[in-house]
Amino acid sequence: MIVQMEHYLVVSALMFFIGVYGFISRKNMIAVLISLELMLNAVEINFSVFNRYLYPERLEGMFFTLFGIAITAAETAVALAIIINVYRHIGDINIRKMNKLKD
Fold first, then answer.
1. Which domain holds residue 31?
2. How far is 40 from 60, CA to CA, in rounded Å?
3. Model pTM?
């Protein structure tokens, strides 16, 4: 059974919109970070799929995907460091309490 391009794109779109919903609706900073990671993974799936189906002899999409994974890992490390510092300062990682940092 051959998987068509549309199947990959449907999975990617579902992942992206689930990430958008989680990003908008969550109050916990860790959940927001996970939603953001889900959206970035959906974009990386699109890079790979379009590379495979449009230009199978080239590897630009795969390089963009690897670059995206590296950027995602660095972004996660920085975000977790920020979340840890916010928790140490406030004692909670609820986004609604971020206005306490202004004091």
1. 5-102
2. 17
3. 0.85
